[in-house]
Design brief:
By secondary structure, the protein is of the alpha+beta class. It is built from three helices and three strands. Helix 2 packs antiparallel against helix 3.
């Protein structure tokens, strides 16, 4: 998987104009940095780009884990998802 394939952009979901480049994969050659942890897309599994912000998959899972664990007892299904994700990152 190339570094540009690691980036998922949500820009097109908000902007449906004809001004978008024809090939968005070749649009960005510079690293994209997570707005939360500061790591570039070359050091993370996936990166999601939003309007003016980026979040890597690891920060996303930390946020999801926090939201799930805020209730103190995660469901069995939620815990399985968290366990699978964190085991693949190591």
């Amino acid at each position: 998987m190339t570094d540009s394939e690691k980036i998922v952009s949500l820009k097109s979901a908000r902007q449906k104009t004809k001004e978008q480049p024809q090939d968005e994969k070749t649009q960005t050659k510079e690293p994209v940095y997570c707005s939360f942890c500061g790591r570039p897309n070359t050091q993370v599994v996936k990166m999601v780009q939003g309007p003016g912000v980026n979040i890597c998959s690891e920060c996303t899972m930390i946020a999801v884990q926090y939201l799930i664990l805020e209730d103190k007892l995660p469901s069995t299904e939620a815990q399985k998802i968290l366990d699978i994700f964190w085991s693949k990152i190591k």
